[in-house]
Amino acid sequence: MVPVLFVISMVMIPGFGSPLSVISLLVIGSLLGIASIGQTLTILLGGIDLSIPAVIGLANVLTVRWYGDGLPFPLVVLCVVAIAMAIGAVNGILSRVLGAHPLLITLAASFMILGGVLVYTEGRTIGTVPDYLLQAVSPAGRTGPVPLPLIVIVWFLMSLLVVAVEQFSVPGRLLFATGASERAARLALAPVTVIWAAAFAASSACAAIAGILLAGFSGGADASVGQPYLFQTVAAVVVGGTALLGGSGSYARTFAGVLLITELTTFLIGLGFSDRIQQVMLGLLIILLVAIYGREPHVRTQI
Amino acid sequence: MRMRKTALAAAAVVSAAFLAMGARADEKSVVSLDGLKLATPTAEQKEALNQLPEALRPYYAGYWLLAKIGPDPYANWTPPKAPWKFCYNDSYQGNAWRQNALDKYKALVEEYKKKGLASGDLVVTNSNNDINVQLSQLNNLVREGCNVILSIPSSPTGLCSGIKDAHDKGVLVVTVESPVLCPEAVNVGFNEYFVAAKTAKWVADSLGDKGTVFLINGIPGLAPTAARHQAALDVLGNYPNIKVIGEVEGQWTPSVTKTNTLKFLATHPQQVDGVVDSGLGAVAAWQAFEQSGRPLPKINGFVGECSYLAYVKEKGIPVYSTSQGGAAAVWTGFDVATRMLNGEKPVVSTLLMPLPEITPANFDKWYKPDMTVQSTCFAESPDGRRVSPEFLDQYFKKS
Question: Which residue, among A58, A52, A51, A53, has the nearest Cα to A104 in the 3D structure?
Fold first, then answer.
């Protein structure tokens, strides 16, 4: 579907296939793609992470502020990602210990995070970002000899890593096993709480990386910069074909979902449709795809 | 007055042609901007405009897209004696604009306190954009004995019952920057339509009535978004050689503006000469052009954010922005409130004003060296005001 839509777009919209246009799409896709990694992992578990926009906002504001205060950039990144992972781990652990749906836990977390950011910054989001971060997310940027901005390469590498972990490692299998049936996984002595903590920590880490990159993308701090990424990450996962019930799917599918959504919205903008029509079309696409995927029985009943 | 003049002129020379011309001229004074045709008011809207002194009418162009004009709701009000208790019914405090507004209001009240005109410190509430919370906070402020409440309502109708109650108890409620539709409120703000028309006019003029432009819109579903959008389209309709090639949803958010501009540019390979921005999108749009390897178009500023000033300074490109600074906004509201406390009566309930303009001629007065492209601050006008006291005089009845 991705290549088909691409060819249609190229024919219908002049300039769609030019190298710079394609790179622009990849940059926009990378931001969504990186944020969607975490969403895929939590949905594979049968959970969901609603705190992604808040963590993006947190990382965005803290990065700009701390770098502006003169801390070295690598240290800033390290601290921000560490804080995010701690938040994510708490999300995962609380979801299991309290037996509450992560929908509630992560929703509560996102209120606390955004409120905390506003309290900490007193609404004054001043600061700056390094020039190389601006370059890393600029469609005109380069990575050494490669004519692609760093963010696209980071996204590709992270995608390969995530897919490899999913398919070929023990933690990956535990993730699928827990998602397919938590009870069975417990009986097989899988460390369910640890897996949840790890998946949500990874989710927050990816959101934090997206938030840091967004600081370069928009060049300033904004606690609400993550807002579009709540439904978009879920949509990317669903359009890709990962089941919301967990246990079946993969980031490779989400990767395709991200490309499809980015391509589709760009295609619609190219045809001059307003944002509202784009939302209608995206909704139709989701229903269409769910109708197709929904015909497959859940993995639990396939064994 | 004007009608009689027209009739006299018509009687003096041959009638019909002059009558028609007179009627056209009259309409022009209401709906035009330096000769450009703008939105035409209905008969009812025209009648509302006729309550205003003629000099003010142009500043009310398209007012019906964002506000209602009624008679002064405090016409029969006897102002309380000084010292007064000043209060602030704010709806959000999470950005630099709101902080500037709050700081300014506090400072103004502090000044009044020193002069013995204010009875204490400013009392502040903040509802975090929850209109129900804001309403109960407003009711509390009335109960606590505030004489004047400045409010930035988060909905055009949600506070009406509280405002009516305050009005009935003799408390003066003045909304700042977001006019409400309640008949008992005094509203002070800028005319979204008029200001957006000015910015669009600058873009069109700076292109010399030739070329392609696209629009960047605000958050869908809000009155200011619709008013600004309509103004841009109305103005550009006067320029036959300017082609509008599309619209981008920027939502007054740089990251969203940049994402959607990049998508737009990826699908519009033709040259783009200008962009009409409806707020906070200019720098993000320029960066999208830059990073797509395209020449920089002419883009207006709207709010007067520091990053806009820093960017045009850095690139040496043409500048035109209106300034919607928070401190100046709240000062205007404070001015109106204190004039009313001193017995002055506004000509109508809703006072819509133009915004100060940042142009090459006065750029150095607005620009500060510490502004950078990444600043999230807003430029405040050199004299701190939105309009001069003499200009504000026009909004009050001559006693």
Answer: A51
Read off the tokens for A283: 């909704």
Residue of A nearest to B285 (CA): A218
- Report the residue from B99, B372, B376 with minimal CB separation from A221: B376
- Long-range contacts at B390-394 (CB < 8 A, ≥ 24 apart): B391/B353, B392/B332, B392/B335, B392/B336, B392/B339, B394/B53, B394/B55, B394/B56
Percentage with pLDDT > 70 across chain B: 92
What single-letter amino acid sits at B383?
A: D
For residue A244, report the phi and psi dihedrals to the nearest 5 degrees.
Answer: -65, -20
Chosen for mutation from B244, B249, B255 (greatest number of chain A CBs closer than 10 Å) is B255
> Which of the residue ranges A64-78, B320-334, B375-389 has the most confident prediction, judged by mean pLDDT?
B320-334
Where residue A152 falls among pLDDT bands split at 50, 70, 90? very high
CA distance A14 to chain B (A): 7
Residue B82: C-alpha distances to residues B79, B138, B165, B343 (Å): 9, 22, 22, 12
Residue type, A109: A
pTM: 0.82
Cβ contacts from A onto B, under 8 A: 121
pLDDT, tens only, B205-254? 999 999 999 999 998 888 899 999 999 999 999 999 999 999 998 988 88
CA distance B176 to chain A (A): 20
CA distance B174 to B168: 14
Torsion of CA B379, B381, B385, B389, to 10 degrees: -160
pLDDT of the residue at B255: 83
Confidence band, pLDDT 50/70/90 cuts, at residue B27:
very low
pLDDT at A221: 78
Q: Check CB contact under 8 Å for B376 and A220.
A: yes
Q: How far is B19 from chain A (nearest CA, A)?
A: 44
How far from each other are the two terminal CA atoms of chain B, in whole angstroms? 19
Look at residues B365, B373, B210 and name the one whose alpha carbon lies nearest to residue B306: B373
A248 touching B (Cβ < 8 Å): no
Model pLDDT for residues B129-149, shown as the tens digit of each residue:
899 999 999 999 999 999 999
A positions 193-232 inside 8 Å of B (CB): 214, 217-225, 228
What is the structure's pLDDT at B32?
Answer: 65
- Label residue B267 by pLDDT band (50, 70, 90): confident
- By three-state DSSP, how is residue B176 classified? strand
Q: Is A278 exposed, middle or buried (0-12, 13-18, 19+ CB in 10 A)?
A: buried
| Closest chain B residue by Cα to residue A30 | B259
Q: Which residues of B18-31 are buried (b: 16+ CB within 10 A; e: fewer)?
A: beeebeeebeeebb
